[in-house]
Design a protein that fits this description.
With 150 residues, the protein is an alpha/beta fold. The protein is built from 5 helices and 6 strands; from the N terminus they run E-H-E-E-H-E-H-E-E-H-H.
Length: 150
């Protein structure tokens, strides 16, 4: 199992949780971004810088992800693509995207985009709080344990 991170928009506190999990379990961790990233010096932690551009990081992750991998992203279209490929997708708030729920989330996202483009103020997500960080950490631990990470 490798953990892939859509790192451009991933909160720093979530990256820290991922670094600690990679150190504790030895799971491979690859952060993909279109800007330089500082990551801990560890043999199982890598940063990949891709070119700037719309969906370049997402496309890299989709091309490299394997069945059974985990992708950390708040990007629902990316989550839908990796779930289709047999990988897991987890958002930074700890919600696991599955084949059963990702299409529904994608539909809601598309509807909200339509409302925003029509001028309706829909607001954005609330700030990432302590509860969401803990939910993410707990879900990550469960997934790593379930997938047989060392």
């Amino acid at each position: 199992m490798n953990v892939w991170v859509d790192a451009d928009a991933c909160p720093g506190v979530i990256k820290e949780i991922l670094y600690r999990a990679a150190e504790r379990t030895g799971v491979g961790l690859t952060l993909v971004a279109n800007q330089p990233l500082r990551v801990p010096k560890a043999p199982n932690v890598h940063a990949v810088q891709v070119a700037a551009g719309f969906d370049v990081a997402d496309n890299h992750i989709v091309a490299e992800v394997a069945p059974g991998d985990l992708v950390v992203t708040a990007d629902i279209p990316l989550a839908a693509e990796v779930v289709e490929r047999g990988a897991l997708a987890l958002n930074p708030r700890g919600e696991l995207y599955t084949a059963e729920n990702v299409r529904e989330r994608l539909g809601v996202r598309d509807m909200m985009d339509e409302l925003r483009s029509a001028g309706v103020a829909t607001g954005g997500p609330s700030a990432l709080g302590k509860r969401e960080r803990q939910t993410f950490a707990n879900q990550l631990d469960r997934l790593l344990a379930r997938r047989g990470a060392p």
